[in-house]
Amino acid sequence: MQPEEVRKLSAGDLDKREAELREQVVRLTLKRNARRLDKPRELVEARRSLARVLTVKSERVRGAGEGAKA
User: What is the pLDDT of residues 9-67, one digit of tens each?
Assistant: First the structure.
């Protein structure tokens, strides 16, 4: 998921996407540990997507906090 796509999502959609990605990372990590992960790149991409979602969420919180102070 590209950063531009993540920024277009609403707050509810971001929360939903975060939950999905966290579940996917856990599932892929378990597969990797059991040595049954066919495409290791999937785990890397899921982690990166989760990081993007979390970054956008924190930017929005920080942005809202700065707007409230002004």
Answer: 999 999 999 999 999 999 999 999 999 999 999 999 999 999 999 999 999 999 887 76
Task: Give CA–CA dist 65/53, Å, rounded.
Answer: 18
The CATH code for residues 3-69 is 1.10.287.310
CA distance 18 to 37: 22
What does the alpha-carbon distance between residue 60 and residue 67 come to, in Å, rounded to a whole number?
10
Q: Rounded to two decimals, what is the model's pTM? A: 0.86
Q: Distance between CA atoms of 41 and 4, rounded to whole angstroms? A: 21
Domain ranges of the chain: 3-69
Q: Do 24 and 15 touch, CB atoms closer than 8 A?
A: no
